[in-house]
Backbone:
């Protein structure tokens, strides 16, 4: 139980559900959906290769783009998030206000609108004319940076106050205390929600197809628009996303397990 | 008692359409394609095609109900029976004919290439190594992606592609010539910077038609074809054509 003065308040986004301990065993929600999806893909490709196999062959470069966008924006959002989180707990009024305002603004604007804004609206200014992939990454990074900031803030707040006080009394300065004592310990609280945000970000990356970025969804739509096989194309797109997010959610839950290793789980 | 009222209701139901002998046709139109069909400042759908439909209403008993529908998925909606007809500058192609039925052609169209002024793009050969944009699933997209050496980008709306060209992120935009001319020659802002570079030559002429669901009742198709014929014969078609082009 968390101390009342230090509430652990971790925001959980709409990432894939992280399996809990009781889900262990061969037949559980994860394995049913994962092997079900893989089985569906193989079955459909064998039954109707003219359609489904063609869609699947059309997607790989889109999968690559989706991963590029996701991984680059998660790194960007981690950096932004760390500073936002530190800013949010800072005693300096100005830094605190700037960080809080950033979070308020970004969380108040839908991601789709942010994407449009950064690409098309700011694209009117010559020095801001960045091409579609960097635009998408920057927009996603800024948006998720605000969410990550909250995760970092909560993670830091979850560390007992005594830890900081002890470090300070041993002669650490404020920066050293934060980076050598507090942050390393808060990692354990921060990592699972970060993993969850990662999965949520991967799914939200389908929004960048609006900027004509050729990700999985855009490739699927292009295929459908030429062949008119909407059912086949979107079925494949959905299954591919499902397989990817399920692999990631498995990785996140494994990571969580390891982090909890010493607590006797 | 119940039976009687049902009978009366049925009779009434059968009488109403025959009394007015009016056929309602719901129409899907992606009104982002000026001057063919677009939403004007008063938020009403206007353009060449809506006016043509209005003229067809006058010479027949059809009542068109135009709904603004996003282009991506417009054909899926037709197949799902969400509306009877598409009037959205749909080119009649062999591939499309396999999945939908077309009315008689109502417009001849060529593919226009928009480029920046002074970009030195004058023919198909100049497109090699260039970045081209088009609206997803349009003829411009289908034709351009087959040209060798062109990097193709597909947009949800033609306006977004033109904006990207204007901002210098792509080299050309390919779309119907009437639309290309509207952006490159008529539009106040774009016309300063953009020009209609050339028309992509096609071996066979390309026509626009109203699309119907394959296998659906032919009555509405016949009504539309008859009305279109009347409008063309009366000279009303030429009047509308001259107004817009």
Residues:
């Amino acid at each position: 139980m968390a101390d009342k003065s230090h509430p652990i308040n971790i925001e959980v986004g709409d990432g894939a559900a992280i399996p809990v301990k009781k889900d262990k065993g061969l037949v559980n929600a994860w394995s049913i959906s994962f092997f079900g999806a893989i089985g569906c893909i193989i079955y459909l490709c064998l039954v109707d290769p003219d359609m489904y196999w063609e869609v699947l062959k059309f997607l790989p470069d889109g999968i690559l783009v989706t991963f590029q966008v996701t991984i680059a924006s998660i790194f960007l959002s981690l950096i932004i998030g760390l500073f936002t989180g530190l800013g949010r707990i800072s005693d300096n009024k100005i830094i605190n206000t700037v960080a809080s305002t950033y979070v308020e603004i970004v969380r108040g604007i839908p991601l789709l609108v942010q994407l449009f804004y950064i690409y098309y609206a700011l694209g009117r200014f010559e020095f801001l004319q960045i091409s579609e992939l960097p635009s998408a990454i920057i927009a996603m990074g800024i948006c998720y940076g605000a969410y990550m900031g909250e995760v970092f803030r909560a993670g830091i707040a979850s560390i007992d106050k005594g830890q900081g006080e002890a470090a300070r009394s041993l002669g650490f300065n404020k920066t050293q205390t934060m980076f050598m004592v507090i942050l390393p310990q808060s990692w354990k609280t921060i990592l699972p929600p970060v993993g969850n945000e990662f999965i949520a970000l991967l799914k939200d990356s389908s929004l960048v197809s609006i900027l004509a970025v050729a990700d999985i969804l855009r490739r699927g739509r292009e295929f459908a628009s030429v062949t008119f096989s909407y059912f086949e194309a979107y079925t494949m797109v959905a299954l591919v996303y499902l397989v990817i997010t399920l692999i990631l959610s498995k990785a996140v839950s494994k990571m969580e397990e390891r982090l909890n290793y010493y607590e006797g789980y | 008692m119940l039976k009687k009222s049902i009978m009366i209701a049925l009779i009434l139901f059968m009488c109403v359409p025959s009394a007015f002998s009016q056929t309602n046709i719901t129409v899907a139109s992606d009104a982002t394609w000026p001057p063919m069909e677009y939403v004007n400042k008063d938020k009403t759908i206007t353009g060449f095609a809506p006016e043509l439909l209005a003229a067809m209403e006058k010479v027949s008993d059809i009542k068109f109900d135009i709904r603004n529908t996003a282009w991506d998925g417009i054909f899926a909606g037709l197949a799902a029976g969400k509306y009877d007809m598409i009037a959205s500058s749909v080119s009649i192609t062999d591939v499309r004919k396999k999945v939908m039925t077309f009315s008689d052609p109502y417009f001849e169209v060529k593919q226009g290439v928009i480029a920046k002024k002074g970009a030195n793009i004058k023919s198909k050969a100049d497109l090699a190594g260039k970045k081209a944009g088009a609206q997803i699933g349009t003829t411009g997209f289908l034709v351009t992606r087959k040209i060798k050496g062109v990097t193709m980008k597909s947009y949800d709306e033609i306006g977004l592609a033109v904006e990207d060209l204007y901002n210098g992120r792509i080299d050309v935009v390919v779309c119907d010539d009437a639309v290309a001319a509207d952006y490159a020659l008529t539009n106040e802002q774009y016309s300063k910077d953009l020009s209609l570079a050339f028309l992509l030559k096609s071996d066979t002429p390309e026509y626009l038609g109203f699309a119907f669901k394959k296998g659906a009742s032919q009555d509405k198709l016949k009504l539309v074809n008859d009305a279109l014929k009347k409008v063309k014969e009366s000279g009303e078609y030429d009047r509308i054509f001259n107004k817009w082009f």
About this structure: Residues 1-6 of chain A have pLDDT under 50 and may be disordered. Residues 174-204 of chain A form the longest helix (31 residues). Chain A has one domain: 27-155+190-263. The CA atoms of residues 33 and 246 of chain A lie 8 Å apart.
